[in-house]
Amino acid sequence: MTSRSMAVHEPAHSRRQALKFAAAAAFAAVLAPRMVHATEAQVADELKKLFGGKTMAEGKVKLDVPEIAENGLVVPLNVDVDSAMTDKDFVKSVHIFADGNPQPQVVSYHFTPESGRAAASIRMRLAQTQNVIAVAEMSDGSLYSTKAQVKVTIGGCGG
Length: 159
Description:
It is a single chain. The two termini are 46 Å apart. This protein is of the alpha+beta class. The protein has helices at 3-31, 40-51, and strands at residues 56-58, 61-64, 68-69, 75-81, 91-98, 105-110, 118-124, 130-138, 143-152. It is elongated, with a radius of gyration of 23 Å. Strands 1, 3, 5, 6, 8 and 9 form a six-stranded mixed beta sheet that branches. A three-stranded antiparallel beta sheet has the order 2-4-7, with no helix packed on it. 25% of the residues are buried. The protein has two helices and nine strands; from the N terminus they run ααβββββββββ. The chain folds into two domains: 3-34; 37-152, Immunoglobulin-like, CATH 2.60.40.2470.
């Protein structure tokens, strides 16, 4: 390869790098506004939208999450609600919230008496150290909730 042919390839390579950098910067500019994290107040607002001013009792809901998550990309969560799961007494739904993620509501599960048991497992992303809240809505309209704090050492949502 002659020195002239190297000179021809270098500017193309530099242009390519400049285009990649510009594309990455544009992508970051589009995502930057979405990297805002929910607050405890936003979680409270979401709960109010779903349940109005209903009182939530403690008990019945067991939330199993690690106290410390070394990697926020894959945080295991197990939720189990104590219920007879009969036609007259069953868990209608379980809602999971996280007060430090871009969206306060993580997931909702819906159950029927035919479900047999009101339990679910997921792996979720947590952006930072935050509270995870589980709310169970019973067939009679009563609500039960529990909360656990998860300390995240490496963020999963850009944190």
